[in-house]
């Protein structure tokens, strides 16, 4: 092959690689949607699409915190338990004790943030080797507290102020979708236009180099895990608004969906890479897949198997991305 032809082939390969890197996840969502629409015409109905978006909002909110943790090269396995613990506390304050609903929601967010901060402190002050250890421990603690608060009994009958974010509509648009849009835009500017946001990327890329360059790594990691706890509690408020109830087993396996969404969205377990905008596409892929399986009347046990396979594939894709990056370097 002559040099000109080789250059043209190289350009084509690079062009395809850039296309898949920039638009591959969107292409995957479109293909998945088309396949499900062919198999079940009900998928494209307005009511069903609205339902998919509404169901995805809780996962979209909680995935923001997981994205930040993974961006630093860590992980947060406690977000589901933080969600449950925060909303159970809110239920006790607002429903059982008659507290002002706005103050109750504020306390819910504060509890989630503080518990997330504990994750950060365990990692930075106790020097635990990996957040997998600390967040696994706090996952169990948070779930235990959620169960103990009301002896494992759910709490229902929340005032409309609490239900607003999960059930109110602005015209045809659910308030929860507006919240997700605002949250993701805000997080985009936080990560790209603030020093802390840039430091998060830097720490994920190389923690030791970041420390030597003067970045307060411990402080940034504490901020990341506090934000993860905050978004978990915020997702809990949305969930309570949807079902008008807080229950201690809420949020189970949410961390699995969030991790899958973040990795499918292009973030890497090694840290330092990923875009917050792609995370929402990953969330939608998981939501569309779950909805499609329901429409096709797939048994719940096989749905669980399918999601498990998707998570494994997502991690494998991350491994392949790292190999390609290593070869390119």
TrEMBL record:
Its main location: membrane. It is found in: Cell membrane. Keywords: Cell membrane, Membrane, Transmembrane, Transmembrane helix. The chain crosses the membrane at residues 21-40, 52-70, 77-96, 102-123, 144-165, 171-191, 222-241, 301-320. It is a multi-pass membrane protein. One of its GO terms (molecular function) is transmembrane transporter activity. One of its GO terms (cellular component) is plasma membrane. InterPro entries: ABC_transp_permease. This is Monosaccharide ABC transporter membrane protein, CUT2 family. It comes from Parasphaerochaeta coccoides (strain ATCC BAA-1237 / DSM 17374 / SPN1) (Sphaerochaeta coccoides). The lineage of its organism: Bacteria, Pseudomonadati, Spirochaetota, Spirochaetia, Spirochaetales.
């Amino acid at each position: 092959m002559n040099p000109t032809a080789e250059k043209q082939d190289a350009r084509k390969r690079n062009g395809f690689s850039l296309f898949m890197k920039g638009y591959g996840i969107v292409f995957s969502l479109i293909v998945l949607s088309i396949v499900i629409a062919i198999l079940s015409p009900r998928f494209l109905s307005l009511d069903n699409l609205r339902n998919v978006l509404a169901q995805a909002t809780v996962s979209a909110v909680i995935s923001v915190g997981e994205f930040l943790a993974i961006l630093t090269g860590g992980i947060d396995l406690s977000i589901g338990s933080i969600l449950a613990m925060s909303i159970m506390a809110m239920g006790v304050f607002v429903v059982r004790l008659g507290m002002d609903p706005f103050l109750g929601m504020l306390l819910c967010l504060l509890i989630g943030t503080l518990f997330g901060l504990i994750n950060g402190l365990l990692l930075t002050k106790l020097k635990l080797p990996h957040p997998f250890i600390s967040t696994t421990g706090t996952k169990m603690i948070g779930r235990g507290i959620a169960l103990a608060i009301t002896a494992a009994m759910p709490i229902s009958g929340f005032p409309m102020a609490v239900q607003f974010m999960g059930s109110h509509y602005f015209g045809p648009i659910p308030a929860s979708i507006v919240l997700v849009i605002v949250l993701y835009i805000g997080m985009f500017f936080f990560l790209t236009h603030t020093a802390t946001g840039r430091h998060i990327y830097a720490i994920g890329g190389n923690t030791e180099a970041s420390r030597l360059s003067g970045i307060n790594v411990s402080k940034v990691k504490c901020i990341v895990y506090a934000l993860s706890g905050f978004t978990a509690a915020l997702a809990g408020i949305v969930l309570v608004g949807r079902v008008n109830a807080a229950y201690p087993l809420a949020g189970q396996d949410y961390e699995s969906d969030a991790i899958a969404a973040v990795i499918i969205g292009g973030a890497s377990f090694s840290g330092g890479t990923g875009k917050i905008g792609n995370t929402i596409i990953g969330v939608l892929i998981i939501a569309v897949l779950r909805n499609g399986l329901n429409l096709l009347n797939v048994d719940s046990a096989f749905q669980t198997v399918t999601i498990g396979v998707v998570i494994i594939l997502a991690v494998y894709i991350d491994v392949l991305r790292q190999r390609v990056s290593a070869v390119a370097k």
